[in-house]
Amino acid sequence: MTIEGRDDARGRRIRLGMVGGGQGAFIGAVHRMAARIDDRFDLVAGALSSTPEKAKASAAEIGLDPARSYGSYEEMARAEKERPDGIEAVAIVTPNHMHYPVARTFLEAGYHVICDKPVTTTLADAKDLAEIVRRSGKAFVLTHNYTGYPMIRQARAMCAAGDLGDIRIVQAHYIQDFLATKVEDAGSKQAAWRVDPSKSGAGGTIGDIGTHAFNLASFVTGLELDSLACELTSFGEGRSLDDNAQMLLRFRERNGVAAKGTLWASQVAVGHENTLALTVIGTKAGLTWQQEEPNRLWFTRLGEPKQLLTRGGAGANAAAGRVTRIPAGHPEGYLEGFATIYAEAAELIAATDEGRAPPEGLGTVTIEDGVTGMAFIEACVRSARDDGAWTRL
Amino acid sequence: MTIEGRDDARGRRIRLGMVGGGQGAFIGAVHRMAARIDDRFDLVAGALSSTPEKAKASAAEIGLDPARSYGSYEEMARAEKERPDGIEAVAIVTPNHMHYPVARTFLEAGYHVICDKPVTTTLADAKDLAEIVRRSGKAFVLTHNYTGYPMIRQARAMCAAGDLGDIRIVQAHYIQDFLATKVEDAGSKQAAWRVDPSKSGAGGTIGDIGTHAFNLASFVTGLELDSLACELTSFGEGRSLDDNAQMLLRFRERNGVAAKGTLWASQVAVGHENTLALTVIGTKAGLTWQQEEPNRLWFTRLGEPKQLLTRGGAGANAAAGRVTRIPAGHPEGYLEGFATIYAEAAELIAATDEGRAPPEGLGTVTIEDGVTGMAFIEACVRSARDDGAWTRL
Amino acid sequence: MTIEGRDDARGRRIRLGMVGGGQGAFIGAVHRMAARIDDRFDLVAGALSSTPEKAKASAAEIGLDPARSYGSYEEMARAEKERPDGIEAVAIVTPNHMHYPVARTFLEAGYHVICDKPVTTTLADAKDLAEIVRRSGKAFVLTHNYTGYPMIRQARAMCAAGDLGDIRIVQAHYIQDFLATKVEDAGSKQAAWRVDPSKSGAGGTIGDIGTHAFNLASFVTGLELDSLACELTSFGEGRSLDDNAQMLLRFRERNGVAAKGTLWASQVAVGHENTLALTVIGTKAGLTWQQEEPNRLWFTRLGEPKQLLTRGGAGANAAAGRVTRIPAGHPEGYLEGFATIYAEAAELIAATDEGRAPPEGLGTVTIEDGVTGMAFIEACVRSARDDGAWTRL
Amino acid sequence: MTIEGRDDARGRRIRLGMVGGGQGAFIGAVHRMAARIDDRFDLVAGALSSTPEKAKASAAEIGLDPARSYGSYEEMARAEKERPDGIEAVAIVTPNHMHYPVARTFLEAGYHVICDKPVTTTLADAKDLAEIVRRSGKAFVLTHNYTGYPMIRQARAMCAAGDLGDIRIVQAHYIQDFLATKVEDAGSKQAAWRVDPSKSGAGGTIGDIGTHAFNLASFVTGLELDSLACELTSFGEGRSLDDNAQMLLRFRERNGVAAKGTLWASQVAVGHENTLALTVIGTKAGLTWQQEEPNRLWFTRLGEPKQLLTRGGAGANAAAGRVTRIPAGHPEGYLEGFATIYAEAAELIAATDEGRAPPEGLGTVTIEDGVTGMAFIEACVRSARDDGAWTRL
């Protein structure tokens, strides 16, 4: 990655602990691979599972020092403080309901925090955590990993530069077919906590992936959502959380134009694996990006031929180049996008520790974005309960 | 085309007149080419323009007998009755506001009618026209031409056969960038009448192309729309009609499942030429079709690999085959889809004249569909005025 | 079509006869539909089959006057001369071996000829026919229909204008899976004559579709083929003609650069319906086109983003526009491309009859191109017999 | 990665040194990122550049212990032997001409070797090296990294299982536009050595990327190439090595069928970034894969609909699953494919050290494959010099 103009060279390495991510947890392994790619972190401690034996076995599997495999996150927070080589930051990769207590504990103990999304299970908790982050003076990074893709950075910079003119329309969808049947009744651990309000919060699909789509739309366009009119549906019989969400969007005016949009999130969309797509249309140009072909960005100026911009290719801009590792035509994927979140977290942590401003151009998703994300989820739930009434965030 | 098992062989040829479609009118030429492909019609008379000299010049250009080029549609309706070789059917290809009076005149004079969409400019007129059609005993065909594509017939037959299981989700969009700027102020005749409520009716984009998307979704799924929550926007400064429409959809329950959807129609979507896309997702499978690649249909059964079905190809069903002219890999396009509307109109007209049921499998869009389309437009307008309240058709 | 700036208006209509194209013959119906689209021909006579009853039945099916359905092409050539309203041109849509005698007969009788490809079954016959055409003073059109696609015209004009710089590489393939099994033994009439040297000539797949690929590459680039090194294979057991052809190409120098290429034609390519693809690469830019997505042309200038040019779209040039009927995003297909061959044949015939030069920009494939095509087939066969030695055309 | 059923858990970690890969060298950073992803290697020593200061600076940048940054590879080979924690394996990422001497040195000193391709600059050297590998008893891994893509493993397993029937056709191309202009004269270090026979060997593009295409075709189909007829061209003025290669291929008979093919490699293909494509066609089915969309594999059985198989998706087989890290729809890219080469190298090294057979299903490209690759390059050069005569490997 060309962050700061260096190849895969890295400045200070950060000692990292992990909470969650034991055996069978998909996202823990993803965080670890992502953290390794750019070589800015050493994973040296973990509380990988709330089940002690599983924590131990998981730690052994990934080669953690057994002495630094902890039975609880509280213990890790305390014990690592005692070590001269103790962790400096923690990655939180648990189900949603644990994000808040774990993040709070580590922030208050003086650690930097890298946390999976959504940031909490309630808006109140998110606001509370935002206050804790501010008081802590520590770095807080929310891993909305799709923001790490180079062509998303490209799109964002193009919107900011006015290449699209005034934005009129924002269409987003994030659809999967993971929950098309009642897999939670068939032993899927990944499904079980996602459909359980006590672990997921008030939003099902809207919290799990709808927030990604919303975050991405906000990240790329820089627009603020004013209000939404939402329909939440639970197609899976007996599910208490939504597995399909459709909504209309009204954005706040910018330059006299208030953009409109729709957002669709679904986990019953048979035939779709992980289709996260964003279309942004302005007065001068339009663009479309789809996560399953992340190295491509369709871009068309009004009255000109369609362009297919490619990562590393002729039309790539500086914002894309900054987070590009390898040449055009050599596809970067999901893990590389995720790795950028970690590489930038390392930059942010180093700057925070040194009391200086982080390098320009970081794309870090902050606790404030996390609060907005929770406001989004709660607005969806409120609007849906109110028969789709337009609801402000 | 293999209608009735015959190659390009055709039964009785129908003598056709045309109202509208003079010089510079896009859709008139389309109807004429479409009518020729399968050789079931002879265009022998016309009232091609309300401007007499233009009517005459247009008729000369397309080789009409000058004696049968009329200065007004009323005159044509009268005069052709006097001829032994007079027209049997009329094609109405005027701006929207003329559909009703012209259709009424010809139906009441005993002609069959092929009419462009939307059927009228008000729901009341549409209902009135439906009554006139019923009384007339004549064939009435609404040219929602996208229903003529073979892969749309395939998709419809698959939905009807239960290949998708119970339908849960219907997503449709129809987007263009024709009105991204104020082309109506720059001399575009095509734009001028479309943004004028006195010629278009109460719907702008929603009437011009939103109706196509709605009709297509209904045609393919067979579902009835219960209600919608709509946001209409006029991005073009000073436009009185919508140029962008986004809405949520609730369909009526079928087999205990009430499908949900969104529909987006836009004529300010920079970067999109004529993108009409439909995604239907059921409990067992999902499908996606896009008009700019009409010979392809994506189809995925739950838990099986994605299939790309092709017109004429291995997975094509009988409903697609029935309206297929040439082998797989030899693309059929927009005109062929439109030609199918005409070929089936000929079948319907012949059957009507002979007092027999039309052949099974005709996909004709009827006056009742036209009424539903007008109800759709009016519901959109009402919902939008009522700040997006759920509104029944 | 905008030929000569007129909508679907047409000048003089041409009275047409057809030889071949009876029941069950795919290509006859294609020619008829193509001839109708732009309304420049009246099909009024036919010798549709060498089997008299079939000729009669076929004529009835397509509505020919029984008096003008002939039992042999010779009879048609004679009888139509006697009529004041006799045909002016003939379309030859028989198997290959009949092209020469039929074309000769009609040319010598003073008719214009529209002939399917390849023009004859031997190079000697083709040269002979070229002489006959010259002597006759009549129009001769070879229906290499793929040259009729607007984006092919666009590509050709771009090559001619130097948009690609000096051409270095020409890659073409035309692949189908029609003959993957021994369908000729299973009753396929279409297959039977294609694998029979007495009807196809010395080339199997190379003659049937390889000539299309070669013609298209020549048509677009304007380059002359110098020599080729060819491998012909008959994968189908016992087939005497090739069903797969692969070859290296050397083009004649232009501006000091001699382009190189490969060409692959196959009818055993399982998974491919009718994939005719052309890639041309020059010093300044490269382009790619594929027949199954005919409305699109990929074009990339060195060091610039990839462009997807669309028929009727922002980047379409005058050469494409000249043969474009309907707006961007409304797909034209195979029949429309074929129709352009007919529309231009009408232009050529009218100009020939009037003793004037045809309008500029016609893309007609001539008898000389037909001779080159036969030279190509014979060079392939010679090279293959000579173990792939480089062989001049 | 699910190698051996473990998540990102890894067995023994291997201590690794690197030769080459200093500042500005693209492929060195790639090897390092790839080696980190699955956490099986510790890069602890390096001779990163033949220029001492650059070696030192490069080592500092990537955080190597300065004491283990060596001025020459010979020194590293000696010095590391003296350390109890010395390296166990070396990665060779130099220009081609250094592969042989470095590999020889390290093998003879008792290290395992991971070497970039092509294995040497002459066939004689390759054969010599093969003998050295055999004598050494050490693991030797050639990083034909494209073999690491899951869908390539899928395709290989399908060919092996007979899913395609008997293979008839193998088409491969690998095209870039890196050398479209004389960038070697404009300061490109990457270009300079590639066009220099003293560093690249006798093949230019054919050695640099043609070998990848050939290796991939062999890897997937399991077929042995019998002979080829090759045309090499240097379009860049004054280049002594080829920058474009086109050839015909004859494979050895298997089950009575001798497959045919073409291969095109080019580095002047304007508009193409890194397009490595493979099409394999058998009697029962055909498949196509393209490196720029590596998570997809098109597969069509004769007479059935086209399937788009996806990494991790419904149709993925065990061979693909074995090297898959993350779920369907979360794209893996070039680095992940490369990481698989490293992960499997770790498996092979561990097995070699323990004197046991490596786990089943490893896809390691061996020194024997390297010898075949050099035979391929030399056959291309010989055939081209002999005006394209069929030449045996």
TrEMBL record, chains A, B, C, D:
Residues 14-142 form the Gfo/Idh/MocA-like oxidoreductase N-terminal domain. It comes from the Bacteria. This is Gfo/Idh/MocA family oxidoreductase. It holds the Pfam family GFO_IDH_MocA. Residues 152-287 form the GFO/IDH/MocA-like oxidoreductase domain.
